[in-house]
Amino acid sequence: MIGRLRGVLAEVGEEDLLIDVGGVGYIVRCGARTLSRLPAVGEETVLHIETQTREDGTRLYGFASREDRQAFTLLQGVQGVGPKAALAVLDVMTPGELAGAVAREDKALVARAQGVGPKLAQRIVVELKDKPIGAGLTFAPAAAPALYRPTAAGEAVSALMGLGSAEPMARRAVEQAVARLGEGAEVAAVIKAALQELGR
What predicted TM-score, i.e. pTM, was given to this entire model? Predict the structure, then answer.
């Protein structure tokens, strides 16, 4: 079972990528948030891998962090959530943001994911209670306020999405804005700078 790949990014598609590891090319399915954070083609990258073997073959799913991968696995433990829905949820929120939504029982936030309706979102927030997502973090309500306070970057991404920007584009613009302004920048400043990035 493959758990991690380090290699050269050879190709990037809309839903997957090809990573060259020692001359062997691996096709890895990724969500939009992971794809938006990749380096340029030809550069080295590291992916945390979830390997799934089924009757129709073996598929690799790639993530930027262990927490992303573990959240992906836990989501599929919820009845009715398959790989596609799990990736959709992680496209609209980080594991930390998901943990916060679960702790608050905010099914509306989870239902923003494409293909995830209100009933499935409700099932997700109920069944993921108290489940660990790695590094000692859990979806427990008691842990959520300390571990998952809203950040300026997170609020800026939500604001840009509210203005009509796609989540991957909004997140990338905010990351670039924070890189320019610094981690301590105010939300309003981050939004303004991110809008400038989107306008380029």
Answer: 0.65
Q: Which two tokens stand for residue 48?
A: 């945390």
Task: Determine the Cα–Cα distance for residues 114 and 143; give it in Å rounded to an integer.
Answer: 28
The residue with tokens 């609209």 is: 92
Q: How far apart are CA 50 and CA 68, in angstroms?
A: 10
Query: What tokens were used for 62?
Result: 């790639």
Pairing of strands 57-63, 24-29: parallel
**Which option is the CATH number for 70-147: 1.10.3720.10, 1.10.150.20, 1.10.1610.10, 3.90.1150.10?**
1.10.150.20
Residue 156 and residue 191 in contact, taking contact as beta carbons nearer than 8 Å:
yes
pLDDT recorded at residue 144: 36
For residues 51 and 37, the model is more confident at: 51
Round to the nearest angstrom and report the end-to-end CA distance of the chain: 43
Taking domain 4-63, whether its CATH number is 1.10.357.140 is answered by no
